[in-house]
Amino acid sequence: MRKYFEKNRYTEMLLILLAVVLVFFSVTQGSKLWRIDMIRGMAMQFPEYGLITLGLMFCFISGNIDMSFIALGDFAAIIAVRYIVAHTDETMGNGAIGTVILTGILISVVIGIFGGLINGILITFLKIPPVMATIAMSLVWQGFSTALTRGDAVTGLPTLYSEIGHSNVFGFIPFPLLIFIIGFVIALFLLKRTTYGEKLYMIGTNQKAAAFSAVNTKLLIIVSFVLCAVYSNIGCMIMVSTMSSAKADYGSSYLMRCILILVLAGVLPDGGYGKISDVLLAIIIVQIISSGVNLFPQLNTYYASLIWGGLLLIVLILSTRMTGEGFFKRRAKKAG
Description:
- The protein is an all-alpha fold.
- The chain has one domain (2-327): ABC transporter involved in vitamin B12 uptake, BtuC, CATH 1.10.3470.
- It has helices at residues 2-7, 9-33, 36-61, 69-86, 94-124, 130-149, 159-165, 175-192, 195-205, 207-212, 217-243, 254-264, 276-293, 303-319, 327-335; strands spanning 168-169, 173-174.
- A two-stranded antiparallel sheet has the order 1-2.
- A hairpin with a 3-residue loop joins strand 1 and strand 2.
- Residues 323-336 have low confidence and may be disordered.
């Protein structure tokens, strides 16, 4: 076990942090934390930003970063919701409404593919730095969303959509959690059981060496941005079910939260490293902290942002001290 943790420093850190968080909230708010409705609430909340995080993970592993995924997801959700609202009415049966909802979700996915392709092309072919390219595209998507809605929420969704989002599958699994599990399994398969995942880590470790090894680096980077956009858009469609509407600024707080989760799990935009199991642990920790803070009525919910920022700084400091896997140590390895 000692050898395992020596090779998996981030896993060790996450397990210790999870234990500390659980002990703290169990001692201070144990009667509330372990209630069934509390646990179910957490299982309903994290899938939407959990899926978004899984998508962003592909970009980080390839050594890139995407800052446009939330804005793109909001834009796609607005288009999808407007389509659903325009093609449903109270006289329709659940089967017909379900077909329209699936079509709307498919529209969102197609928009995500298109947006991911744009990001990938800007970065790989036009050589625009990923941060600058995706920030620019974020402003573009946000501008489109605001122009279409004038900043207002798009409402009028059929009740069936909200009911599906709040229902249980097999009687005990929240529907959003089931979608997250499916997305997690697909991401796990892509990273661990396909050549795509192996080559993605190669690109993140050393893009030039990967290119000289006959790896189509441009194609794989574009695919990573497409996957990021598709996962993000599905997560935003889950958010639509929670809010029963779509808006240009929904999910804006998830931008830094998703980045925090990946950094916490050791998936840094430096590329080439990261375990999806650690990402899952980090998602659970962040959700427990988020829900735990809400259990203290005397605390303003905006204190969560302070916690996220402080936690991000602490993790970055700790990562520089992790032998063999710290951020600066891995940079030194690459330079060597």
